[in-house]
Amino acid sequence: MINLDHLVIFITAVEQGSFSGASRALKRSVSNVSTSISNLESDLNVTLFDRSKKYPTLTPGGERLFSHAQTLLRQAARLDHIAQDVNNSVEEQFNIGVGEEVPMSLIEERIAKTIRQFPNTKFRLVRDSRDQLQSRFESGELDVLIRVEAGLETDADFYTFEIFDMVPVCSPDSALADGEIVANELMIASRQLICESLFDNDMLRAEVTLATDVMLVSAMSDLIKMVEQDIGWAYISLIEAEDRAAAGTLKIITPEYSLINRGAALDFCIMPANQLGPVAQFIKSQFTEKCYS
Q1: CA-to-CA distance for 72 and 55, rounded, in angstroms?
Q2: What tens digit of pLDDT does each residue of 132-166 get?
Q3: 158 close to 268: Cβ distance less than 8 angstroms
Q4: Angle at 40 (CA atoms; ends 35, 42), nearest 5 degrees
Q5: pLDDT confidence band for 57 (50 / 70 / 90)
Q6: Where does the HTH lysR-type domain start and stop, copy by copy (predicted)?
Q7: How far apart are CA 237 and CA 263, in angstroms?
Q8: Is the pTM of this model over 0.90?
Q9: Domains in the chain, please, with CATH?
Q10: What DSSP string describes 159-204?
Q11: How far apart are CA 64 and CA 74, in angstroms?
């Protein structure tokens, strides 16, 4: 059986360039370093260092084993961390549902912090239709749910953590892009693309639907590309609209009369529980530290 402590000493000696350097780095005597490496060589039946010169150098066999020794130590450290997670009841897998209409830029930092905090948990991020996300959340397939205006449709605990503005946009090639102010009648007569997740939201459907010719698109990313191709105009988040307007692929429409008089609320939903796991507690803290409810 290979002694992990001997592997640490071996790797440190290589990285420090000498046995004495390893002794200083590890705060051990040179004789202890030398003996440990000799014992490792005996266990492996391989000469790791050529000691014929002033400073020991790796033999071909030592060079070959060095990278494997590093990998083995990393795996040992990971095993130790996983064992700690098991003892602390850290979730092995954690599934996050995100509505199609939710701008990733408004949630990515919070999610990234959670993933970095629990490197041994397997995370899954799911985009889907509003109804499908709700069904998967209620069945327990999703641990948390992030979407627009969720409050009236769930018995789960929900927290409004962000309110973002939505604006109408069109292609720079659209007839709607010709004027500074666009008549509402012209927008009503032009095809409107609507993200299905917004259309399926009873609280927002009437506000986001203006045109008589409506085309539903399931993925927000596809909707934006179709608007850029002048298939129609659409409501998207201001943060996404500004980025594309700056790039010249979309134009933000200024309607004659304001159409949406309030921002869209982003809700974080989690099922009530007497005791949440560490991952659930952490991600909840990320989304509820500053919230509107």
Answers
A1: 26
A2: 999 999 899 999 999 987 655 667 888 899 999 99
A3: yes
A4: 95
A5: confident
A6: 2-59
A7: 9
A8: no
A9: 4-87 (1.10.10.10), 93-162+266-288 (3.40.190.10), 166-262 (3.40.190.10)
A10: EEEEEE-EEEEE-TTSGGGSSSSB-HHHHHHS-EEEEHHHHT-TTT
A11: 17
Q: What are the pLDDT digits (tens) for 25-54?
A: 889 888 898 888 888 888 888 888 888 887
- Measured between alpha carbons, how far is 175 from 271 in angstroms, rounded to an integer? 47
Query: What dihedral angle (degrees, nearest 10) is formed by the CA atoms of 168, 263, 142, 127?
Result: 10
Pick from 187, 188, 178, 195: nearest CA to 251: 178
Total Cβ atoms within 10 A of residue 227: 26
Reading the block at residue 59, the tokens are 């033999």
pLDDT band of 5, cuts 50, 70, 90: confident
Residue 87 has pLDDT above 60, yes or no: no
What the block records as the tokens of 168 is: 């109408």
Tell me the pairing of strands 93-99 and 122-128.
parallel
CA distance 195 to 244: 18
Whole-number Å distance between alpha carbons of 255 and 189: 13
Q: In angstroms, how far is CA 285 from the centroid of its own chain?
A: 16
Do the beta carbons of residue 43 and residue 3 sit within 8 Å?
Answer: yes
Amino acid at 155: D
